[in-house]
Amino acid sequence: MAEAADVEITDRVGDWVKFLKKFSRKQMGEIAREYPHKRSLYIDYKQLEKWGKQGLALADELLRTPGKTIDDIKEAIKQNNLIFTKDEEEKAETINIRFNNLPKKIAARDIRAHHINSFVTVEGILRKTTEVRPRLTSAVFRCLQCGTLTPTYAQHYGKFQEPYRPCTQCERQTKMELVPKLSTFVDTQKLRIQESPEGLRGGEQPQTLDVDVTDDLTGMVAPGDRVVVNGILRSIQRVNQGNKSTLFDIYLECNSIEIAEKEFEEVSIDEEEEKSILELAGDPELYYKICHSIAPTIYGNDDVKEAIALMLFGGIPKEMPDGSHLRGDIHMLLVGDPGIAKSQILRYVIKLSPRGIYTSGKSSTSAGLTATAVKDEFGDGRWTLEAGALVLADMGIAAVDEMDKMAKEDRSALHEAMEQQSISVAKAGITATLRSRCALLGAANPKLGRFDEYAPIAEQINMPPSLLSRFDLVFILTDKPDQTLDRAIGEHILKSHRVGELIQHHRKHPIEGVDDEYIQRELSPVQPKIEPKLFRKYIAYAKRNSFPMLSDEAKETLIEYYLNLRNLADSNKPVPVTARQLEALVRLAEGSARIRLAKTIEQSDAERVIRIVDTCLRQVAYDAETGSFDIDKWVSGTTKRSRDLIRAIKEVIREVGDESGTAQVENVMEALVNEGHARDDVKKRIDDLLREGIAFEPRRGLIKLLVR
Q1: What is the DSSP letter of 558?
Q2: CA separation (Å) from 486 to 293, 299, 482?
Q3: Taking burial as the number of CB atoms within 10 A of a residue's CB, which of 55, 169, 627, 670 is the most buried?
Q4: With a threshold of 0.70, does the pTM exceed it?
């Protein structure tokens, strides 16, 4: 039996020699030339599987006994001098054998006891990384009495191993000291990966797994990266206050890391699905179908759904030769009365997006949205970076509900993430920049809970203008009673509930004449036109393959609209739109063409986005008093008319004031009313000056400017 086992081992080494000579000759030559800068030999698992019966046996052995397999490969290299260099003995030991391209991935939540010491592949998002530090792998000790050196002691993960025997020379039971110069160290780093959010069912807490990375794999990845980690699952015994526990902790001894560079690579599309996608792209009713596949249980809101469709597909991010970056993601804000199904729309969009994170404003802090520095046992008490919601939603959509309820300082964290699409962190001695290339979909309520018909809309949105200006589209959803619409909404809601009741009732007490076909017929009004699974794949396919270019007609249409609005302004009139709105038009037009998987942006795309943007501008930036658009109302929160009135108030205070600059409020108001200003407006602006500290009241009824 022993002989048979020996033959088996020898054969395995021989098989590896044949495989390496056939497939890895070029790579081994590179290692020989570039050692020690290149010291990892990568073996493609798929190539191993394809290499006949022997290959399948080797692949199977790798999954079951990875430690033995790696030793066999090192033995094959050593015996046959496959990587030729002077220090041959030493090199065979220090070369890393790494495997990649394993087909079967396992979720962190599905790891069980039988996986220990086997080769596994785990996919997820990187949550934390520690600094790269050296770890002792083999130690040489010196006797403090006679100075004799001990043989090398192998050091394993975790506890430091010291010699427990007396010195071989003087035979005294003395302490030994470590000789760092003769000991060997390896670079090491700890990572923590978390399950990808798109694979989770609702309400599930994503699970994490710690990964131990060594040698040339260290320092490769940063928090927020999507990675596939191949390695050997190891276990380590828990020790509670010196007492050993029967519970063991698991960690992954990393063999190789693959960074998921390609966006939406986790969404696999087979040939059959690709055929369905291309067929759908040629459908003349495509835009109608897509709009009616977004939250079909919510009646109406067609312009909002159309805008969400453009947002899901997104524009094209552009990297310029000078290194500047133009974002392609479309940011959108829904501000509306309660009970208008904003949160429902947000949750549905997150389900449709191939990558999406949902968070609510009240329960989100700036650290939770961006990134936080944490001090914990994971990094041996050191500070580590932990990625937040916007970093985890990289290349997807982040939905932030109840944005008006967020603390002021937490909202300011969104500024950089929205425009520069990066998050800069300078905390606890860590300075880093994380990527957050995601579209932001926000929802908020008006200041007083419900819109006031008579007050300007911009004043009712409880958000700083600097943040509002970063949204490409702002939709105002008001809930006004309208008999025809209310009847349609009522019937739609009751129909949805009735079908739900029918399904539940039929499941418990089967109804005669009700079959699957009947239920499908009843469900049709609340059923999406495109199945959500296919819709997600359609979006991923469009983002991977569609990069449309602006046609001359579309370009002319967009520039004409922009110039028409700009021409509304002169020295006395407000500025209607800025270049930011033109960029938004381009992004939306790219999204519109991507829906059709088109190669060019046609005039129809330009007209579609102009209609959507025009709807938003009329809601947010239309100044009824001047009868024209005033972008300052949206971008800075103060209309041009208000600014002119404030300047007039200051001038009147200087004119009617005494030597010390103090004026009677009544006199100031009288003078301005005579000039044709409304008394209420003047009173409101004087209150603004007092509140902002530009003026103060020395006594009741008096006003004085702080800066004259």
Answers
A1: H
A2: 22, 10, 6
A3: 55
A4: no
